[in-house]
Design the sequence.
């Protein structure tokens, strides 16, 4: 699987730790930055990760900031992205099975590296439950995007 990853300064350290972990699971990782812990703006890193998922360059994306909240808000402004803010293993599995999330967000100041690895591994290995009720609900999310998103 191809995984894009990005962070802001608040998620820089965890991003680097997770890159190595994801690669150790046998996945290809593309790092969209930043390259240092200097202060940056999270939307500038959320967008290229999301665009890589939408274009098919990546199968999934991971975004990390201090809390994960800013990255989640920015990512979910991109039509076609279903970004889930996850800080526990149950939610990691549920958001893949029920919501077909294609981007995962976490907060470095909220989860430690061990839990973050567990979340990422579970999120990457869990498939979308193709059941009718879940597909119908994801379809309704798409309908919301079609109605309210500004498409160029």
Sequence:
């Amino acid at each position: 699987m191809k995984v894009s990853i990005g962070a802001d300064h608040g998620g820089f350290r965890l991003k680097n730790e997770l890159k190595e972990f994801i690669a150790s699971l046998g996945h290809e990782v593309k790092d969209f930055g930043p390259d240092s812990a200097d202060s940056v703006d999270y939307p500038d890193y959320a967008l290229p990760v999301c665009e890589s998922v939408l274009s098919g360059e990546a199968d999934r994306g991971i975004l990390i900031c201090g809390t994960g909240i800013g990255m989640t808000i920015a990512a979910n402004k991109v039509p076609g992205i279903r970004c889930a803010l996850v800080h526990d293993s149950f939610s990691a599995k549920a958001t893949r099975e029920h919501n077909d999330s294609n981007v995962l967000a976490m907060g470095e100041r909220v989860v430690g590296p061990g839990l973050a690895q567990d979340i990422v591994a579970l999120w990457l290995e869990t498939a979308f439950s193709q059941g009718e009720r879940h597909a119908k609900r994801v379809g309704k999310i798409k309908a919301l995007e079609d109605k309210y998103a500004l498409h160029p």
